[in-house]
């Protein structure tokens, strides 16, 4: 059976559909921020690319542009003993932290998703901050892929939390351009670690 590899972000800079893992590897292995998925049908692969192409999301063109953009790092945490989840976020402009926020979620159903719900809440808070402060473009840095994939609709939304998040982001994307950038959690990234620390401290209050 033929597999179709849809590459939304890869080394060539152009969305593509490939039919071998060897060809796909050249596009995605070693490329920071690669975004791809395999499918059993060509139609599903095309739909995946269309979701990315039709969303108001721009890939970064240069490191300089990335530095000048408002970047907001988000993370989530969870306390099993309290059954509480939290978020932390750090807004960065020109490599300076201009805003920090943290807080606990209050939705009991969302607590079942543990720290993921915190990161989802942080992403929503990040967008609200950007819009309230008249930013026209934002980059959300996250370490859980659902933050991007649920927002775009490339992952299934199986519960009220992910469905609500998707609807929220789709609505906000009509008002602000959003880029999503995946970072590796606990990898020494200064701002990702800051967001993680803020989320953890919110649970201690």
Q: What portion of residues belong to β-strands?
A: 25-35%
Radius of gyration: 17 Å
The fold-level CATH name of the largest domain is Nucleotidyltransferase, domain 5
Strand order of the largest sheet: 6-5-4-7-8
What is the structural class?
alpha/beta
Got a strand count?
8
CATH class of the largest domain: Alpha Beta
Largest sheet: 5 strands, mixed
Oligomeric form: single chain
The N- to C-terminal Cα distance equals 54 Å
Residue share in helices?
25-40%
Question: How many domains would you count in the coordinates?
Answer: 2
Written description of the protein model:
35% of the residues are buried. The chain is globular and about 55 Å long. It is of the alpha/beta class. Helix 4 runs parallel beside helix 6. The chain folds into 2 domains: 51 residues, Ribonuclease H1, N-terminal domain (Ribonuclease HI, Chain A, 3-Layer(aba) Sandwich); 135 residues, Ribonuclease H-like superfamily/Ribonuclease H (Nucleotidyltransferase, domain 5, 2-Layer Sandwich). About 4% of the residues have low confidence. Strands 6-5-4-7-8 form a 5-stranded mixed beta sheet. Strands 2-1-3 form a 3-stranded antiparallel beta sheet, sandwiched between helices. The protein is built from 7 helices and 8 strands. The chain starts with a strand and ends with a helix.
């Amino acid at each position: 059976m033929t597999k179709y590899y849809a590459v939304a972000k890869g080394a060539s800079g152009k969305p593509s559909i490939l039919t071998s893992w060897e060809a796909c590897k050249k596009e995605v292995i070693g490329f920071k921020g690669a975004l791809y998925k395999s499918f059993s049908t060509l139609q599903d692969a095309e739909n995946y690319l269309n979701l990315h192409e039709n969303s108001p999301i721009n890939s970064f063109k240069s490191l300089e542009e990335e530095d000048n953009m408002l970047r907001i790092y988000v993370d989530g945490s969870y306390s099993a003993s309290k059954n509480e989840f939290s978020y932390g976020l750090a807004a960065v402009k020109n490599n300076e932290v201009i805003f920090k926020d943290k807080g606990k979620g209050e939705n009991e159903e969302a607590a079942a998703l543990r720290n993921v719900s915190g990161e989802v809440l942080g992403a929503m808070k990040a967008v609200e901050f950007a819009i309230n402060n008249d930013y026209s473009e934002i980059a959300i840095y996250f370490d859980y892929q659902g933050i991007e994939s649920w927002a775009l609709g490339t992952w299934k939304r199986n519960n009220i939390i992910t469905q609500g998040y998707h609807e929220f982001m789709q609505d906000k994307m009509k008002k602000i351009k959003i880029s999503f950038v995946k970072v590796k959690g606990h990898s020494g990234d200064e701002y990702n670690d800051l967001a993680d620390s803020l989320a953890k401290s919110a649970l201690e209050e």
